[in-house]
């Protein structure tokens, strides 16, 4: 098959060009359908239980994703001045008019209600700030009013009175960038000296999507240009360098076009596919071109030479491609859909790159004019082979590796141990806001607003009563009572809504009832149903509310949350104002009826539905909203641990269950999945790559030796991440696959060539000497091209891209060094088994361990 | 009855109805006064059992059931009201008392049996939710016509269409509303409220009218919050007029000890 492919490519170059061009055009046509997805929620599958529950909670409690707009005033009176409040009032009115904003749920001073004692014995509901105040005293009074409302204090206005916020809920979080831009424009028109900031996870995510687009349009082409320039530096021939570029472009376009065409969204992961594929796609053609220029001499038949080269390189290239692909395919074992898609498409892209390389590069070479080939050959052999820096230093590196092989191996062992220690220190943490650089508006807003307020990151602890509403004996008597009225009780579990419907039905029948017997039966059924309904409304029970208040107090004491908001806060506030307005009446009423009547009053405000953010309409679920000052999942983990401890010490009231939701918590879930998933996929990729190596070299020993560079590279990179204290986030996690793929590429080429040369020379020192000529230069060039090729990423405004750029360079440097140092050292140590001197040939070195001296 | 007189009467009625069709013999204010009379002043006093179903955009329901007693002190003038809650059972015994005043702010009181508290509700915004429903307090007690300016914009075969603009725009959430008043019963059949951008955001409509003791009476109505998609359905049953409710029962005492004989 190999020969057929090579023959086809060299015999029919035009057909090869036409086919690849057709593929590129067909797939490029699909790219305009691109759909960007930056929602971290999509890190979890749609049917992931945590995600399903999170969305159920959002729907049950009518929670929207919100933009947070904050205003900070520098003056001595803080935000409570007529001028600052007028600006806030104006901005709020304008925000309410924006498309995509949920006006009824927008939380601001001018949309919120105050409940006060109008006069002794009088209660009063009114807007906190219907109109902006005219006097300083009136402005200060608003500040004092907010301080009395625990639900708003430190949420809507900062504890220090310097800042106020507007929470802008969105029907669709996808609109957040556009709405945020409109709000920014509105802010510039305000007459105000206050500092306005915009934050909130949806803004960060959406903004990231927009900047990611820009990044894809700038970084990937810049990386391409850089790679092109570097290759030109090494090969000094534009025609030669064009070939790898064509392969890279064709691969990237075909892969991305297929991904988009198949309807997958471009997530932050898949946006990096181009950047990952480019170096890998270039590597194969660089090997071919390197080898070709090595063998080609002026006057040779290019077709014959390239066929010969391809015959030699086809297998190692196939194997490197397959092993690299396996490294990426292993990502499909992680439970994170965007990472699965990333792995699948990079893996397939690598195989496609191989296919395009073995077809396009030979076809390209045979179409080159002999004169071009000659001049290219002359330049290459004239310069870099003998006078280049690599040509001068690499041979001594080879000697060093052989002479100091023991020290090198011990050093490698030490580095491995240190790396393992580093890995144990790795902090798993991701936070979409940290995807922006520290000086980005989003990061500054996040920092400022979380400094002033109780926190812009949300976690929800949802308590649910799962007690059955009806036991079997009660059901029997109820069924009898209802039967007397002519109603059949459904066999299904009784729901609160069913009780309400039954009561309504009984009520209707009472109106039309003609005789006393029917009325008596109705009364009996009602007398049985009403207590059932009351018992079902669990979150009206003061004992349950008191338990919740205890948990909130503990959370506040822990210092882990800026603030928690829940039903007890509402009940106590209304109760206080109904009674005396004094702090001593900030208590829970003594009975469920008292709580229900308090809440009926709360609902007599301008925003009655605010209640349903904290309790479900059937009073069987209640939500405690925790405000966190950071979106780091470690922070959330501490909160979860604290609650777990609290639940151990203070068990939930009978029949209640507690579950987590909220964006901060969802991030924890997928990050946990990512870590365990990555570990699993890396382990399985290791095993598969080892088996493939052992098969390729037909030697388990070689399989093991080939694993050395990638093991040490991956360990070193992640050890470094641990020691530097860099958070282990998604881009870092997936780089393990790239490290695996590229390190193994170098190892295969090095070992394959070493074996081939050794077969001819029969001597290890001679073999290694030759190895540190052209083959090592090819590896070094590849490493340098890829490492430096990604330096444009360092200029990116988005942190994940910078991370990839830095790590890419590190991976190339480490894996090339490890390959060039550790493999010769290992081969020297193990030469008796790995490269035995063929009988009949004389070994130039003593096989003993003193050979190095 | 002799025939000529009958003929004359028919002729007079015919002339009268022609005049009505040609419109304009009733001013917008007059129509509004008739509408106010029809909706809130039928009979000397009255009682009805109300049931409210509050539904959100996801179809989730809450129920409120209460009995209203109403007594008119003077035609189109001051009124007294008591609202006794019976369901959900945990709010049973909660009572509102209103002394509706035309010349000044209404007086309102509240009794909460679960807290054993009787409180006066400060005069203030009456366009707050009525116990969590999409109705406002003002919808239940009746908005004072003195607060708006009216203009008759259209007369259809069935309705007078009148636009209302608030005299104090800062006190309400709408910029104007339009009301469709039935020409025969003078009941407002529909009212639509618009915000500052002239978007329609709220609609109150009548679904069913029955004649009780000669008074056309709304027995089913609906408020829709067109922004949130929620709605409240209100049903009145057991409506009775002219029960002879004594003024004395509209008192603080009745709030703590409901006058059961008048509540049935």
UniProtKB/TrEMBL annotation, chain A:
Pfam families: MMPL
Transmembrane region(s): 212-235, 242-266, 272-292, 313-333, 339-366, 407-428, 673-697, 704-724, 730-751, 778-795, 801-823
Domain SSD: from-to ranges: 240-367
Broad class of where this protein is predominantly found: membrane
Keyword Transmembrane among UniProt keywords: yes
Localization in the cell: Cell membrane
Keyword annotations of the record: Cell membrane, Membrane, Transmembrane, Transmembrane helix
SUPFAM superfamilies, per the entry: Multidrug efflux transporter AcrB transmembrane domain
Domain of life: Bacteria
Membrane as UniProt keyword: yes
PANTHER family membership: MEMBRANE PROTEIN MJ1562-RELATED, MEMBRANE PROTEIN YDFJ
Name of the featured protein: SSD domain-containing protein
Organism: Ferrimonas gelatinilytica
TrEMBL record, chain B:
One Pfam family recorded for the sequence: LolA_like
Cleavable signal peptide: 1-23
InterPro entries cross-referenced by the UniProt entry: LolA/LolB/LppX, TP_0789-like
SUPFAM superfamilies: Prokaryotic lipoproteins and lipoprotein localization factors
Domain of life: Bacteria
The entry's keywords: Lipoprotein, Protein transport, Signal, Transport
Name by which UniProt lists this protein: Outer membrane lipoprotein-sorting protein
Oligomer status and interactors: Monomer.
Uncharacterized protein TP-0789 domain span: 77-256
């Amino acid at each position: 098959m190999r020969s057929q492919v090579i023959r086809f490519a060299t015999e029919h170059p035009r057909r090869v060009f036409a086919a690849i061009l057709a593929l590129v055009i067909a797939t490029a046509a699909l790219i305009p359908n691109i759909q960007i997805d930056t929602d971290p929620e999509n890190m979890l599958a749609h049917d992931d239980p945590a995600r399903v529950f999170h969305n159920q909670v959002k729907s049950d409690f009518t929670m929207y994703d919100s933009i947070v707009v904050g205003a900070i005033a520098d003056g001595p009176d803080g935000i409570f001045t007529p001028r600052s409040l007028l600006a806030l009032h104006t901005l709020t009115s304008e925000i309410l008019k924006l498309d995509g904003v949920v006006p009824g749920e927008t939380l601001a001073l001018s949309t919120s209600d105050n409940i006060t004692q109008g006069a002794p014995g009088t209660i009063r509901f009114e807007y906190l700030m219907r109109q902006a105040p005219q006097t300083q005293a009136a402005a200060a009074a608003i500040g004092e009013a907010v301080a009395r409302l625990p639900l708003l204090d430190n949420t809507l206005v900062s504890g220090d009175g310097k800042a106020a916020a507007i929470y802008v809920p969105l029907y669709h979080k996808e609109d957040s960038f556009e709405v945020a831009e409109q709000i920014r424009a509105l802010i510039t028109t305000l007459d105000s000296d206050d500092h306005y900031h915009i934050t909130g996870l949806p803004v960060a995510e959406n903004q990231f999507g927009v900047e990611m687009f820009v990044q894809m349009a700038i970084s990937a082409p810049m990386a391409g240009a850089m790679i092109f320039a570097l290759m030109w530096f090494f090969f000094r021939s534009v025609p030669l360098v064009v070939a790898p570029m064509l392969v890279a472009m064709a691969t990237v376009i075909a892969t991305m076009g297929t991904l988009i065409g198949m309807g997958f969204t471009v997530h932050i992961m898949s946006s990096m596919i181009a950047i990952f594929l480019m170096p890998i796609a270039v590597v194969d053609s660089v090997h071919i071109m390197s080898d070709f220029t090595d063998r080609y001499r002026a006057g040779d038949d290019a077709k014959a030479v390239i066929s010969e080269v391809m015959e030699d390189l086809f297998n190692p290239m196939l194997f490197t491609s397959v092993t690299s692909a396996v490294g990426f395919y292993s990502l499909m074992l992680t439970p994170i859909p965007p990472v699965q898609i990333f792995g699948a498409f990079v893996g397939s892209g690598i195989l496609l790159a191989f296919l395009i390389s073995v077809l396009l590069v030979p076809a390209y070479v045979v179409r080159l004019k002999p004169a071009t080939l000659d001049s290219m050959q002359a330049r290459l052999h004239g310069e870099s082979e003998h006078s280049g820096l690599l040509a001068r230093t690499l041979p001594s590196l080879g000697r060093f590796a052989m002479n100091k092989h023991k020290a090198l191996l011990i050093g490698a062992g030490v580095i491995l141990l240190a790396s393992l220690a580093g890995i144990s220190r790795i902090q798993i943490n991701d936070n979409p806001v940290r995807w922006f650089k520290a000086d980005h508006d989003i990061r500054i807003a996040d920092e400022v607003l979380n400094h002033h307020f109780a926190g812009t990151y949300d976690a929800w602890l949802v308590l649910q009563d799962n007690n059955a509403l009806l036991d079997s004996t009660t059901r029997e008597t109820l069924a009898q009572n209802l039967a007397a009225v002519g109603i059949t009780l459904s066999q299904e579990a009784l729901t609160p809504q069913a009780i309400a419907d039954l009561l309504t039905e009984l009520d209707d029948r009472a109106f039309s009832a003609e005789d006393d017997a029917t009325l008596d039966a109705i009364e009996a059924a009602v007398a049985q149903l009403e207590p059932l309904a009351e018992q079902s409304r669990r979150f009206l029970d003061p004992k349950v509310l008191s338990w919740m208040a205890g948990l909130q107090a503990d959370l506040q004491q822990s210092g882990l949350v800026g603030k928690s908001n829940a039903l007890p806060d509402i009940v106590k506030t209304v109760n206080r104002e109904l009674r005396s307005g004094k702090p001593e009446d900030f208590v829970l009423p003594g009975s469920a009826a008292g709580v229900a009547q308090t809440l009926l009053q709360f609902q007599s405000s301008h925003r009655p539905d605010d209640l349903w953010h904290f309790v479900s309409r059937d009073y069987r679920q209640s939500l405690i909203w925790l405000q966190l000052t950071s979106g780091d999942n470690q922070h959330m983990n501490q909160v979860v641990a604290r609650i777990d401890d609290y639940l151990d010490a203070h068990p939930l009231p009978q029949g209640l269950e507690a579950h987590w939701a909220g964006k901060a918590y969802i991030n924890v879930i997928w990050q946990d999945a990512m870590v365990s998933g990555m570990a699993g996929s890396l382990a399985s990729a290791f095993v598969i790559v080892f088996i493939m190596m052992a098969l390729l070299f037909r030697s388990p020993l070689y399989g093991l030796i080939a694993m050395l560079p990638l093991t040490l590279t991956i360990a070193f990179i992640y050890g470094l991440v641990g020691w530097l204290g860099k958070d282990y986030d998604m881009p870092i996690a997936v780089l393990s696959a790239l490290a695996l793929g590229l390190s193994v590429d170098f190892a295969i080429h090095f070992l394959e060539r070493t074996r081939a040369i050794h077969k001819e020379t029969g001597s290890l020192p001679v073999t290694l000497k030759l190895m540190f000529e052209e083959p090592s230069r090819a590896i070094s060039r590849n490493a340098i091209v890829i490492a430096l090729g990604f330096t444009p990423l360092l200029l990116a405004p988005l942190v994940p891209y910078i991370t990839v750029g830095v790590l890419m360079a590190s991976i190339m440097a480490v894996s090339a060094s490890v390959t060039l140092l550790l493999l010769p050292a290992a081969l020297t140590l193990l030469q008796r088994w790995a490269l035995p001197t063929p009988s009949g040939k004389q070994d130039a070195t003593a096989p003993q361990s003193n050979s190095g001296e | 009855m002799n025939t000529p007189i009958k003929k004359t009467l028919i002729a007079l009625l015919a002339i009268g109805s022609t005049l009505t069709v040609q419109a304009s013999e009733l001013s917008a204010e007059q129509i509004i006064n008739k509408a106010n009379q029809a909706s809130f002043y039928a009979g000397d006093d009255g009682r009805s059992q109300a049931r409210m179903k509050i539904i959100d955009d996801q179809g989730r329901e809450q129920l409120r059931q209460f009995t209203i007693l109403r007594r008119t002190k003077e035609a189109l003038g001051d009124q007294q009201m008591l609202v006794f809650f019976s369901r959900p059972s945990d709010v049973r015994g909660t009572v509102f008392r209103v002394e509706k005043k035309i010349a000044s702010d209404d007086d309102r009181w509240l009794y909460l049996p679960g807290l054993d508290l009787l409180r006066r509700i400060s005069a203030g915004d009456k366009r707050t939710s009525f116990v969590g429903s999409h109705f406002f307090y003002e919808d239940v007690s009746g908005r004072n016509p003195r607060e708006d300016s009216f203009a008759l914009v259209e007369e259809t075969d069935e309705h007078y269409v009148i636009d209302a603009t608030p005299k104090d725009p800062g006190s309400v959430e709408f910029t104007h509303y339009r009301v469709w008043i039935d020409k025969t019963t003078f009941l407002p059949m529909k009212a639509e409220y618009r915000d500052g951008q002239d978007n329609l955001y709220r609609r109150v409509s009548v679904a069913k009218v029955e004649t009780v003791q000669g008074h056309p009476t709304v027995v089913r109505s609906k408020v829709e919050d067109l922004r949130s998609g929620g709605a409240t359905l209100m049903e009145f049953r057991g409506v009775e007029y002219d029960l002879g409710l004594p003024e004395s029962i509209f008192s603080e005492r009745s709030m703590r000890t409901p006058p059961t004989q008048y509540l049935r």
